[in-house]
Design a protein that fits this description.
The structure is a single chain. This protein is mainly alpha-helical and about 260 residues long. The protein has two domains: about 5-130, Arc Repressor Mutant, subunit A (Orthogonal Bundle); about 165-225, no CATH class. It is about 40% helix and about 10% strand. The protein has a three-stranded antiparallel sheet. Strands 4-5 form a two-stranded antiparallel sheet. The chain is elongated. The termini are far apart. About 25% of the residues are buried.
């Protein structure tokens, strides 16, 4: 296993067991925690957080905002960032632990954490930046179970919000069937990839009319992400099919194209 994948991320029990903190917020916090250095700071991009938490960028931004409102994290633009690029420095623990969302500076924080020598006990990961060395070899079973559960819930939420709106009925029942499929060996990534292929097919065949799209429960029941489908190219204009031109309106059809 490569050095940047060893060890594990952690989340404070106070956050994990707080029913007011949503699973999306917990998963984003976990993604930040996995990249935080010894000063509890990190600066991954939104796209990186989204990828590592299996969520959309819009969901990540909402979760970050909620975490900041709860004073569980804070952030400010990195003054050492490249011109024209905005990179946020995130501090776990809220505004009392460092920079705040509004750019004010907490006690003990000066300049950019990118400058000077790396913090002790850090390694070069985090998109080329520093992150804590693992303190133990393997995460506990509870941490593994919690992390996998959050990722699975995130994948179902993406499935549910992506499915055609008028064909989403009985979210609780569909979620149960989705989780059962994954328990039986289905790969959430394969399910989402299959749905994206079908969305393209349905858009071509039905446009905005969702009447002929199967219900979400039916699609999951049939395991239709396993179907091999290919979206046909758009139909060619009749002029191109038959080879007509403005000066030869009665040209013989090109049957090879037709």
């Amino acid at each position: 296993m490569s050095g940047d994948l060893e060890g594990h991320a952690s989340i404070p029990r106070a956050i994990q067991r707080d029913p007011d903190v949503t699973w999306m917020e917990k998963l984003v916090y976990l993604a930040l925690s996995s990249r935080a250095n010894s000063k509890m700071r990190c600066w991954p991009s939104i796209s990186t957080i989204a990828k590592e938490s299996s969520m959309s960028e819009a969901s990540v931004k909402r979760a970050l905002k909620k975490l900041a409102e709860r004073d569980l994290i804070s952030w400010t633009p990195d003054p050492a960032g490249a011109p024209g690029q905005t990179v946020n420095i995130y501090t776990l623990g809220g505004s009392t632990g460092g920079h705040t969302e509004r750019g004010s500076q907490g006690a003990g924080v000066t300049g950019s954490p990118r400058g000077g020598q790396p913090d002790p006990l850090t390694i070069e990961v985090n998109d080329g930046k520093d992150s804590p060395l693992p303190l133990i070899d393997e995460p506990s079973p509870e941490v593994v179970k919690f992390t996998k559960g959050l990722a699975l819930e995130a994948s179902f939420e993406e499935f549910w919000t992506s499915y055609p709106r008028t064909r989403r009925t009985g979210k609780k029942a569909v979620r149960a069937k989705y989780l059962t499929a994954v328990k039986n060996g289905a790969d959430p990534a394969a399910i989402l990839a299959g749905l994206r292929a079908y969305l393209a097919l349905w858009k071509k065949k039905y446009g905005a009319n969702e009447e002929f799209v199967p219900l979400a429960m039916t699609w999951v029941n049939r395991a239709q992400w396993e179907d091999e489908i290919e979206v046909a190219p758009a139909e060619q204009p009749i002029e191109k099919v038959y080879g007509f031109t403005e000066h030869q309106p009665y040209r013989e059809p090109n049957w090879e194209l037709a």
